[in-house]
Specification:
0% strand, binds nickel (II) ion, binds adenosine-5'-diphosphate
């Protein structure tokens, strides 16, 4: 096997090739930000940097919303080609399997590495970038920006969350505003505070513009 630094750098190149044409907010730049934020959190919180870095680069390459792979074939195939030892590849796949938000079925990862990558993925779903990604994703699914008659849903399970086609403003209440209090690590919790408060300002401006002039 090449040394781990080369494998990590190749994982970035592999992710770039996988996401070359995506515009639903799961693009390569999202993956790059998750890799960067994961590294920053690891510097504060510890954890195995190789597992964290590989999991961050590979965390969306088998996302069922985007690819019809089974058993993480893209991530596993890449690591096999690079002769990553099974024990490391298994740890990476374990982290990836616990990262995703699944409404009421979301799991708290049982490893520090998983907690860090999940926090990094979630930090990229909130704040200014999170707002942009939510509207890009909603647009790609044909969802309305906002519908005041439609109320946000609470208590969805994974299946309901995946098939739900609500307006994008509701997605803030169904997921994005919940993430700050779901951060696993103290470092991520601090970063999340600022991003969360920016989203709340955005939502209040949005609603005041929406209602501007009403009743006059
Ligand atoms: P994860 O990355 O944890 O698997 P998702 O796939 O649910 O989570 O979300 C990925 C990105 O797409 C996030 O930025 C998220 O906010 C956005 N997204 C997911 N579902 C919706 C939706 N119904 N409306 C708008 N944005 C969404
Ligand atoms: Ni992601």
């Amino acid at each position: 096997m090449d040394d781990f630094a080369n494998v990590i750098s190749d994982a970035g190149i592999f992710a770039r090739s996988i996401f070359a044409s995506d515009s639903s907010g799961h693009d390569f730049n999202h993956t790059m930000r998750v890799a960067n934020i994961s590294r920053l959190i690891q510097a504060e919180e510890g954890g195995d940097l190789v597992v964290i870095s590989l999991a961050a680069w590979l965390h969306d390459v088998d996302d069922p919303k985007l690819f019809a792979t089974a058993d993480m074939a893209n991530a596993r195939g890449f690591m096999k080609r690079k002769a990553v030892p099974d024990i490391v590849a298994d740890a990476v796949c374990h982290v990836i399997s616990q990262v995703s938000f699944k409404a009421g079925d979301t799991v708290v990862p049982d490893t520090l590495e998983g907690k860090i990558v999940q926090d990094a993925d979630r930090l990229d779903a909130i704040g200014a970038i999170g707002i942009a990604r939510a509207f890009a994703y909603g647009g790609s699914r044909g969802n309305a920006i906002y519908d005041p008659l439609e109320k946000p849903l609470a208590g969805m399970d994974e299946e309901e969350y995946r098939h739900h086609k609500g307006c994008t403003i509701n997605h803030f209440h169904e997921k994005l505003l919940l993430l700050k209090d779901m951060m696993n690590t103290p470092t991520a919790r601090i970063l999340a505070e600022k991003r969360d408060s920016f989203m709340r300002t955005f939502l209040s401006e949005f609603l005041s513009e929406w209602n501007y002039g009403q009743g006059q």
